[in-house]
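Narrative of activities, Objective 1.

The group set out to show that a structural description can be obtained from nothing but a protein's sequence at a throughput compatible with the screening campaign. Below is one input-output pair from the validation batch, recorded exactly as produced.
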Amino acid sequence: MEVQIEANWKNILKDEFEKPYFESLIKFVKSEYKSNKCYPKGSDIFNAFEFSPFDETKVVILGQDPYHGPGQAHGLSFSVPKGVAVPPSLQNIYREMKDDLNVDSPNHGNLEDWAKQGVLLLNATLTVRAHEAGSHQNKGWEIFTDEVIKKLSAHKEGIIFLLWGGFAKKKSKLIDSSKHHILTSGHPSPLSANRGYWFGNKHFSKTNQILQEQGDDAIQW
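Output recorded for this entry:
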């Protein structure tokens, strides 16, 4: 099938689009969007790849599932469009960022500016039924996004993978740690953060330090 996705990503992933699991996945997604309210809107499903082309990706932040409330999901992990209330996990991300870098938190939750600097904001599952968390898990998306991580690991060097929480940490087995950097911590959700597993990880300053040591531009978080 024809997938509308950034050109270099499309070239890297073209074999995936022809595999039986992906054909089944797309049939499922089309059926879901036809018969149920689903997020994000169809044109935003592959936004992470549009905003962070393959050749420009230098940091990966992995989420699990899109937000399932009205107007929240727009194809970037942890991000919501401007005008939508900042979710609790992102509030904690901003709090850590402020403590780490001494920068003011934005008054919105849109992370497109991060993505445009080469931060791939990738959810393991790219779609969800409204108000039903996890409803599109185990349908094939995870196979696809695992392959995305493998392709980045195989074809690039020096990427910084930020793996937050138990689910994301399991993806470390897909990454060649001799070529890339893996930073892990607890998840920024209130449950994890309030138990002391998130705050103080300093992932934002650590990421920029690594980037600059590699000769790359720091991220303007």
